[in-house]
Amino acid sequence: MKVLAIGDPHGDLEKVKIIPIKDVDLILLTGDLGSANLMRKIAFENVERQKRGLEKREFSPTQRKMAFMEAYNSTMKVIKYLRNFAPVYTIYGNVESSNLETRKESKEIGLLLPFLTDDLREIDNVRVINNRLVNFNGVRIGGLQYFVDTNWVQDFKPKDYRKRMKKAKRQTDKARDILKRFDEVDILVHHQPPYSYLDKVTFSGAPKHWKGKHAGSKLILDYIQRKQPRYAFCGHIHEGEGMRRIGRTEVYNLGVCGYKFITL
Fold first, then answer.
1. pLDDT tens-place string over residues 140-187
2. Whole-number Å distance between alpha carbons of 46 and 86
3. Distance separating alpha carbons of residues 77 and 33, to the nearest angstrom
4. Which of 81, 104, 168, 189 is the most exposed place for a label (fewest CB within 10 A)?
5. DSSP H or E segment with residue 125
6. How far is 32 from 189, CA to CA, in rounded Å?
7. Is-contact 77 11, C-beta < 8 A?
8. At residue 45, does pLDDT exceed 80?
9. Where do the domains of the chain lie, and which CATH numbers do they carry?
10. What contacts 62, CB < 8 A, 6 or more positions away?
């Protein structure tokens, strides 16, 4: 069986089209399917403002909808292209919004927004495997949705530390339970890298006080060290693109539209 893993597409359909896809049985995606240019601009601007002690900038409902729709529309284009070649299994990164998050955002801005999860379910040959263990032709694949690990909050120290840590503890506990349920897998698909492997922040557009820090997950690192899947595919920290071994596991940070073919 031939599997193609692709790093965070971020809506770059032209870059996706360069991938020489031929005779593959399955395509795996590491999340961040759509373009996040506007989302990133909004988020990073407010991180820097908070660092300087300034009030958080409030963006208009129209601006927030534009950021959402940029991600949604580019996601659908990428997914509809890839599903023509083979079944597509994907997790969510930090760009995608669940139905619950979309409903909340829509209510806050007073504008209707499409539900990505529902719309992806309507596309043939596409499956969202957030926090699911799936068996594809005898290959065990664990899909772990993006979460904020407590070690990220500890290391990056956001201004609203207590609130962020409380939320991170809930998300990390949930992810721990999911990985425990997975037990041993052949392939782990996750969004952020394992801590200290392919995860150092050097991106020029990142906030200055983030640079040089490890942004990976200690929980994911622990799982890989203990369970040793054959392959682990991630993205998120795009400048960390590359391959490292953790014991027997080949860990690939596939960056933006980087790719790896494997045969099982």
1. 999 999 999 999 999 999 888 999 999 999 999 999 999 999 999 999
2. 40
3. 10
4. 104
5. none
6. 13
7. yes
8. no
9. 2-263 (3.60.21.10)
10. 111
Query: How large is the angle between the packed helices 99-109 and 61-82, nearest 10 degrees?
Result: 150
H helices of the chain, in order, are 13-18, 37-51, 61-82, 99-109, 116-121, 150-156, 161-182, 218-227
Residue 125, pLDDT > 80, answer: yes
Q: What 3-state class would DSSP assign to 130?
A: coil
| The residue to which tokens 């399917």 are assigned | 33
Q: What is the DSSP letter of 257?
A: T
Which residues, at least 6 apart from 232, have a Cβ–Cβ distance to it below 8 Å? 187, 188, 189, 190, 194, 220, 224, 246, 249, 250, 251, 252
Residue type, 214: H
Distance of CA 199 to the CA centre of its chain: 13
* CA–CA distance, 77 with 39 (Å, rounded to integer): 18
**Does residue 185 contact residue 227 with C-beta atoms inside 8 Å?**
yes
Strands 88-90 and 231-234: unpaired
Query: Which phi-psi region, left, alpha or beta, contains residue 242 (left: φ > 0; alpha: ψ -120 to 50)?
Result: left
- Give me the sheet containing 249-253, strands edge to edge: 132-136, 139-144, 187-190, 231-234, 249-253, 242-246
Pairing, β 242-246 against β 249-253 = antiparallel
Main-chain dihedrals φ then ψ at residue 219, nearest 5 degrees:
-65, -45
Stated pTM of the model: 0.93
CA nearest 12: which of 74, 69, 60? Answer: 74
Decide if 32 contacts 235 (C-beta within 8 A).
Answer: yes
The CA distance from 1 to 52, in Å, is: 52
Distances from the Cα of 112 to the Cα of 66, 95, 103, angstroms: 12, 18, 9
